[in-house]
Amino acid sequence: MTDRMIDKSGLMVAPSLADFIETRALPGTGIDPHAFWAGTADILARFAPDNVALLRKRDTLQAQIDSWHEQRRGQPHDADAYQAFLRDIGYLVPEPAPFTIGSQNVDDEVARLAGPQLVVPILNARFLLNAANARWGSLYDALYGTDAIAGAPAGKGYDAARGAQVIAWAKAFLDDAIPLAGGHWADLTSADIVLRDPAQFIGTSEKGKLFRHNGLHIEVVFDRDHPIGATDPAGISDVTLESALTAICDLEDSVAAVDAQDKVAAYANWLGLMRGDLTDTFEKGGAMMTRALNPDRTYSAPDGSSFTLPGRSLLFVRNVGHLMTTPAVRLPNGDDAPEGIIDGIVTSLIALHDLNGHANSDRANSRAGSVYIVKPKMHGPDEASFTNSLFDAIEDMLGMTRHTVKVGVMDEERRTSANLVACIHAVKDRIVFINTGFLDRTGDEMHTSMQAGPMIRKGEMKSSDWITAYEDRNVQIGLACGLSGRAQIGKGMWAAPDRMADMLDQKIGHPMSGANTAWVPSPTAATLHATHYHRVDVFARQAERAREGVTPLDTLLTIPVAVGRNFSEDEIAQELDNNAQGILGYVVRWVDQGIGCSKVPDIHDIGLMEDRATLRISSQHMANWLLHGICTAEQIDAAFARMAAKVDAQNAGDPLYQPMHGREGESLAYQAARALVFEGVDQPSGYTEPLLHAFRAKKKAQLLEDA
């Protein structure tokens, strides 16, 4: 492969990436190809060695922590001594003096509004367009086709009884969000509306009336020519909610991108979004359809003037973390380049199309002139500081003013959450969100304390002391650092897209916590979750929580080991089967088909939106139990064998699926799943990427040979 690479300022670059950069990404930016490659080479020369050094520090700290636990095995845990040890080795750092973040030119969707956030794999153009267009959604549709309301539509056509349920629910919601001066929305007989608070009415469209509540917009559509409006006393045909305020286009956990071909496909979709011209053509219901980005929405104000509202979600892009390298670019010494550095350079370059006005003005992204990059899996303030310096260098290379590139910090690694104030301080002038991630955070919790003892069962983690402290501290520290009104404080994903009733019941806890955004798996979920931000005034809730103290670090550092616990044989078998099924169900699609995120049936056949973070927690849990003798290698292999048959049956309807049961010796997916467990203790920070990338690369080579 080396002789096919192209020399660009001393870097060896895959031809497909070089061509994409020079013929598609650079034109229209005003940047010369030679200057781009020279700048990229300079950034890599400056930052790649530091990247390597930071990863070595991770390994050094982990080895010291492992040794500390090994030396004290069998002794009661001494929390004071443990914390003193973590400070001595530099795992815990001194907290900076109180400060307020200084991020400027932040779009309202991030800083001053509260609402849902979608996360979408960047390799799927159709999903990307759906996510970008999920800024607005029909409440009627979201209620009618899901279990949000008990029951389901009868027959194939419109079910009037189900429709009546939907209309009643939606109008009761309007009573709460936009109360009338007298009576209820269900009693309304015309479009003549008198509100309790007239200021909530802000405009009209051709058939709609636009209202605002808690900063979010609601459009009630009046159309007596519509089948629904024709039977409605007031002629209301729909209620449209402002839904996904923001969306994260993901280059990381939800995609399988292992080579230049994959990276170019991902970058090309980001380019289409930033230029405003991304489209996708597909077959639906026997007909071909083309989807594009929605334009902005135009309204008339009560004084007769016109105004527009964004028609699309504000888009972030999630780069990869510091760990992985990419074969798409090789350094002068022959090493693959750090993938996160390449992502930072290329995604920022592409965003120039939006910043410089080359994008379709009716489909522009940031109105404040910022680029929004989510940076995952950073360990502590040194790594946050590295990202800040890297973004400085990228801005200088691309001619951007300082802090144009904003950063979202994923608080999903133990050393980051334990030093969250210092991490925020390291990026204080460009930070635009902090976000918790239960799965990755639990995976790192287990890996960091791997030698401390056997962990409690995976399902018990959500109610453990450390996770409660983690979620509370994220909000408390964010508020103390001045994120309210300046940045997002975010919460994690609702993973069950078919369980909207449960989501409506439970996910209101996220705005109640003081988080002004939380992740959802679909546009429908975004519309339903948006109702929570009408029921909760998040910024008032933040003001209440800002008066709290910060939950003590001691509680966060409580290790979730099963002290004095003897697991029964049934408990062990259930835990192994649950983990093995989840690992196989996800890995088989990742390795064999290159699918990084999809609705994967769990052991109870409930479809869950899974990405790589799910894999990390399950594989680390099995590796931990194996290490401490809770189970044997034979029991793990037996669980994998049983669950391979189950996963095969669950995927029987997929014509591209390759069975694993009975083919264990030749199935690369099955071998990858086993490796994630049996080599789990030795994987860096317990990450799954190194093994997944290696097995997917083998599979792609195999497919190429067979073609």
UniProtKB/TrEMBL annotation:
Family assignment?
Belongs to the malate synthase family. GlcB subfamily.
Q: Where does Mg(2+) bind?
A: E412, D440
Name the positions where glyoxylate binds. R318, E412, G437, F438, L439, D440
Catalytic activity, EC: 2.3.3.9
Q: Name one GO biological process term.
A: tricarboxylic acid cycle
Q: Which residues form the Malate synthase C-terminal domain?
A: 571-652
Query: Which residues are modified to Cysteine sulfenic acid (-SOH)?
Result: C597
Gene3D superfamilies, alphabetized: Malate synthase, domain 3, Malate synthase, domain III
Q: Which residues form the active site?
A: R318 (proton acceptor), D611 (proton donor)
Signal peptide from the UniProt entry: none
What organism is listed for this UniProt entry? Sphingobium lactosutens DS20
Q: Where in the cell is it found?
A: Cytoplasm
Q: Can you state which reaction this protein catalyses?
A: glyoxylate + acetyl-CoA + H2O = (S)-malate + CoA + H(+)
Does the keyword section mention NAD? no
| Domain called Malate synthase G alpha-beta insertion: residue spans | 158-194
Tell me, what does this protein do in biology?
Answer: Involved in the glycolate utilization. Catalyzes the condensation and subsequent hydrolysis of acetyl-coenzyme A (acetyl-CoA) and glyoxylate to form malate and CoA.
User: What is the protein's name according to its record?
Assistant: Malate synthase G
Pathway involvement of the protein, from the record = Carbohydrate metabolism; glyoxylate cycle; (S)-malate from isocitrate: step 2/2
Keyword annotations of the record = Acyltransferase, Cytoplasm, Glyoxylate bypass, Magnesium, Metal-binding, Oxidation, Transferase, Tricarboxylic acid cycle
* Binding-site residues, acetyl-CoA: V119, R126, F127, S254, R291, P521
